[in-house]
Every structure is written in structure tokens, then in C-alpha cells.
Amino acid sequence: MRLIVIGGDAAGMSAASQARKRRGQADLQILTFEKGDYTSYSACGIPYWIGGLVDGPDELIARDPAAFHDAGIEVRTGHEVTGIDLDARTVTVRDLAAGREVREGFDELVYATGASPVRPPWARTTAGGVFGVQTLGDGAAVNAWLETTPKPETAVVIGAGYIGVEMAEAFARRGLRVALIERAEQPMSTVDPDMGALVAESIRKIGIDLRTGVTVQGLETAGGRISAVVTDSGTLPADIVVLGLGVRPNSALAEAAGIALGASGGLVPDLRQRVGDGVWAAGDCTEVLNLVTGRRMYVPLGTHANKQGRVAGINIGGGYATFPGIVGTGITKICDLEVARTGLSSKEAEAAGYRFVTASVDSTNRAGYFPGAVPMTVKVIAEQDTGLLLGAQIVGRTEAAKRIDAFAVAIWNRMTVTEMTALDLGYAPPYAPVWDPVLIAARKAGEAL
Ligand SMILES: Cc1cc2nc3c(=O)[nH]c(=O)nc-3n(C[C@H](O)[C@H](O)[C@H](O)COP(=O)(O)OP(=O)(O)OC[C@H]3O[C@@H](n4cnc5c(N)ncnc54)[C@H](O)[C@@H]3O)c2cc1C
Questions:
Q1: Whose CA is nearest to atom 38 of ligand 1?
Q2: If pLDDT is split at 50, 70 and 90, which confidence band does 325 have?
Q3: Does the N-terminal or the C-terminal CB of the chain have fewer CB atoms within 10 Å?
């Protein structure tokens, strides 16, 4: 039996590792093709590497091809799969250095090609200095550009989602003057406008020139390099530009092979991550089921990619595992401001047709009198008639964001806000006020029903 894995990062290598764990080498040969230079890397760590908070790229790699070889998994980096023939059960692979193509047969196939940054027509320039940040190779390219002569002084990040915000902070840490442009009226539009306003205030406080409600119209270049970003409210000088406009699933190969895609363009695996007979898919190239709305959606996150890859690998290895779906938990930080969300935002709850109430509380992370107590805002969204917890958002400083996990577990278990109020959460003055902000917010939402 031979397993071929396309894509050597979170989803693909989780699948390969789990399959190997369950089936010996005599039983299953595993061959992975990765078009880049790295395997099993943390793309999530790229902004912190560029910002100088962590070393890289080696430190961001969990396992390199040599380690996989020792574990009985062959990886060919610099090899791009360019075609899949499901009837013949072969893939066509291009050795990028040699420029040669070969065909390789498979019994089982894992499709884990990830996603690519959205690049609108105006951003398709051959000039240097315009980057999408998705792979470790992209991170290395950004770092190399920052170290070129003449050294960049101004950075423009387009799109203030979590990757844009993290990259803006990274450039600010590197001493660049940074503009962050967002078409919406707030950064991080995955949270409600009132919470987004708190994020905007913090971004501006650290000296980033955040411009919301602004649309980019084009790029200007000079001498083969990016020189400025043209917007509907002025032109901004730019020695480097990062596109944080979201990502799209790399699903073209699958589509060409006749594998069905969902509305987002992602593959649509079943509960066991299967998309066909002996064909599996996982990670950023797939859609996931939102357990709150019951609808499929595209949520490209590493936390899902790792779990989905693991599930695929267990099933390939002869075990049984499922990936039920997600509740929409996301977490990030901008300098010392922590931002978290789970479930549905008000806008999403409205779009899903819910009647709902919201409640916000301002509290602290520790007992008010305890050293290090700092403010935190918690917002809860609950269904009007049932009190079912639909969503929660947190903006705060120390020890704020990970409190979202209590809400995520409550949503997963379909709890009402009134039931949440009775939760036995930990309390001691160094860790929480006697009523944790999570409990106060749930109680307030219950009172608003
Ligand atoms: C800057 C940044 C910060 C992030 N922060 C977070 C975070 O804090 N939390 C979180 O949960 N997620 C985060 N993510 C998202 C997370 O990194 C991704 O969800 C995760 O990497 C997806 O894993 P994957 O294996 O599905 O895809 P990828 O990591 O994209 O890997 C796919 C691999 O497939 C290869 N490939 C593609 N096509 C082919 C082909 N035809 N042939 C051979 N190889 C191919 C690519 O080169 C790539 O290496 C972040 C992402 C970025 C970019």
C-alpha cells in the first residue's frame, strides 16, 4: 500500500504521522510532496519571527524532512504536484529544481495543499516588495527584503484582519513607520464594532497609522520596487507592502481531478475527512461545519488543520476518528492587547436569522486590589427566547484572551447563559475577581433576555 500526501505542513504531516503510527513500513509506504523548502512549520509564528520576538526559520520547524525520514515518512521538498488522475490512481509531480515531471502511483491520497493569500488584480505586480504571507518561505522572503539595501523605512499592510494586525505590529517592532489600511470601518471585523473600536484605539496608541474605511486603488513602483500604495484618500509611501486580504483554498488541482468543491471553493470532506474513495483532505484547502449555524464555511486556521490531518491519518491507519466541526474560536494579540472571539458575532447571528441579546461588562483579570489587575471587556451574545449562548468576545490585556475557552466549551455543549452563570470556574485573587468576568458577562446576558 502506498499513501501519497500533497502538502508538507500542518494538515499533511499530521495525517502522515498518524498513518505511520498505526501502520508499519512493510504495510504502508508514505511519500509526501511539498513544493516549498520546509515541512511541519509554524506559519502562525511568522509575524513573531519578523518582529524579532522569536528566532527563525529553524525554530519554527517542528520536524524537518530528515526527521520524517527517520520516522519512516519520505518527504520530497521542492516537488510540486501538478495533476491528479483518480482513475489511474497517479499524481504528476514536478521536480522544481530539475524541471522534470514524473508520475507516482498511490493507493491512498491526502490532499493538504493549504491556501494562498488573496491577490487582487491591482496587486499583481512583478515589482519587488509586495508580499502575501502564508508559508515559511514567504516569511523568509519578507525578512530578506527587510535586510536589503536600501533598507525599507515604511511599511503598508493592507487588510486589518488577524494576519494584517500581527504583521503591522511586527513591522513596528522592526522600527518601520507602519500604515494599516482597512476597507471596513473597524479592524478585526470578526468582532463586533464596539470591540473593534477598542482594538483600533490600541493599534493607534502604539504608533501604527490605522486607516479604516479606506480602499486601496493601486500600487506605484519605481526601479522595479514598490514605492507607494494609492488609496481613495491619498497615497502612502511604501518600501514594503503586505497583503492581509484573506486567503483562498488551493483547490484547483482537486477540482481538475473531479473532486467536488463547496461554495467557498474549499473541498468538502465528510466527518472522517474523506472526499472520495481512498482520497482524503484536511486543513486550509477544506471547508468546515459551523456547529452553531449548522452551515459549512471556510475557516483556515492551524488549530483545525492539525486536528483534521490527525483524523485523516487515524482513519487511513485503520482506526476511527471524526472531526465534528468548529464553533468559531479565534484569538490574537496586538502588542499587549489580547483579542478573542468564539461562536457568532452580532453580525453573524443576524445573518443566521437569530433573535438575540447582547451584554457587555468591564471587569479586571485579577481581584481589583491585586497587583497587576488590568481592565478587560467581555461581550456575550445569547439567543433571545432560549438563552442559548451564541457567541462571546473578549478584549483585554494580561490573562484576558484565553478566557474565551470557557465560552467555547459552553457553546460546544449548547449551554444557556443562565447555566453558565453556575459554572465552577477557578477563583483566587491573583487569577480572577471573585466573580470572574466570564460569569458576570453570562449573568448580565441572562438578565437581558
Ligand atoms: C502569518 C500567519 C499567522 C497565523 N496565525 C495563526 C494562529 O495564531 N492560529 C491559528 O490557528 N492559525 C494561524 N494561522 C493559520 C495556519 O498557519 C494555517 O491554518 C495552517 O498552516 C494550515 O495548515 P495546512 O497544512 O492546511 O496548510 P499550509 O500550512 O498552507 O501548508 C500547505 C502546504 O502545501 C504545499 N503545497 C501547496 N500546493 C502544493 C502542490 N501542488 N504540491 C506540493 N505542495 C503543495 C504548500 O507549499 C504548503 O507548504 C496563521 C497563518 C499565517 C500565514
A1: 113
A2: very high
A3: N
Sole residue written with cell 482597512: 182
Q: Please give the average per-residue pLDDT across 274-291, as a whole number.
A: 98
Measure Cα distances from 249 to 100, 245, 274 in Å: 26, 13, 17
Domain range 2-114+247-316, CATH architecture: 3-Layer(bba) Sandwich (3.50)
**Domain boundaries in the chain?**
2-114+247-316, 119-243, 330-448
pTM of the predicted model as reported, rounded to 2 decimal places: 0.96
Evaluate if residue 149 carries a pLDDT over 80: no
Distance from the alpha carbon of residue 359 to the mean position of ligand 1, in angstroms: 35
Helix residue ranges, H only, 130-176: 136-146, 162-173
* CA geometry: angle 303, 142, 182, nearest 5 deg: 70
Q: Does domain 330-448 have CATH number 3.50.50.60?
A: yes
Which element (helix H / strand E) includes 305? helix 302-316
Nearest to 298 by CA among 266, 321, 270: 266
The three cell numbers locating residue 172: 513596528
> Which atom number of ligand 1 is nearest to the Cα of residue 301?
19
Instruction: Report the alpha-carbon distance of residue 200 to residue 187 in Å, rounded.
Output: 6
The answer on pLDDT for 343 being more than 90 is: yes
Pick the CATH number of 119-243 from 2.60.40.10, 3.40.50.10330, 3.50.50.60, 3.40.50.410: 3.50.50.60
Determine whether the shortest distance from the Cβ of 159 to ligand 1 is under 6 A. Answer: no
Which cell goes with 412? 460546544
CB of 114 within 6 A of ligand 1: the answer is yes
pLDDT digits (tens, 9 = 90+) for 155-177: 999 999 999 999 999 999 999 99
Of 8, 111, 27, give the one whose Cα is nearest residue 69: 8
For 22-59, the pLDDT digits (tens) are 999 999 999 999 999 999 999 999 999 999 999 999 99
The residue from 1, 44, 86, 321 that is catalytic is: 44
